[in-house]
């Protein structure tokens, strides 16, 4: 018997018994999801505005952005001046000042928002705009990422991304820089449940 054969035989003879897999972890639902979501989002450098209607989002845009800035809105009720659907080359989005998008769900534990491809049209849009507004509905808030992954259907959408704040880095001289590689700001408008 060669040394290789003796080693493999020893391993085979000393193989431990199979053990069953542990039960899947479950986490309790939590209360105060909006407050927890705000804590997670602000910890990531974002801002939360709780609103009753999309008219409040439109008013915010009119108050903070001028008509000569390029605004790409994929929220029907909020007007923009860039029609993203007519753009075939994503490079043409490089001068977009503000992108206004719909989020599919929000995660309270870390402030993340799931953005399926159908909600962003061009994958680059949430990363190339200088500023980002994402609208989510209160009923889409989840407690944690475990719940989010149960709901995310990547195969159905083909692409999606979790966004959890503006772009940031702290690897240069241990100093936090916001907007280093993408949007300089993220404002999330959370639409309260009606009724």
Question: Any overview of this molecule?
Answer:
- It is elongated, with a radius of gyration of 23 Å.
- The chain has six helices and eleven strands.
- It has a single domain (about 30-190), classed as 3-Layer(aba) Sandwich (Rossmann fold).
- Strands 1-11-6-3-2 form a five-stranded parallel sheet.
- It has helices at about 5-15, 35-45, 55-65, 125-130, 145-150, 155; strands at about 45-50, 70-75, 100, 105, 110-115, 130-135, 140, 160-165, 170, 175-180, 185-190.
- A hairpin with a 4-residue loop joins β4 and β5.
- With about 200 residues, the protein is an alpha/beta fold.
- It comes from Echinicola vietnamensis (strain DSM 17526 / LMG 23754 / KMM 6221).
CATH class: Alpha Beta
Shape: elongated
Q: Largest sheet at a glance?
A: 5 strands, parallel
Classified in CATH, the superfamily is NagB/RpiA/CoA transferase-like
Strand content: 15-25%
Radius of gyration from the alpha-carbon trace, in angstroms: 23 Å
Low-confidence stretches at least 5 residues in length (pLDDT < 50)? none
SSE ordering: HHEHEEEEHEEHHEEEE
Pfam families: LUD_dom
InterPro entries: FTHF_cligase-like_sf, LUD_dom, NagB/RpiA_transferase-like
Domain LUD: 95-191
Organism: Echinicola vietnamensis (strain DSM 17526 / LMG 23754 / KMM 6221)
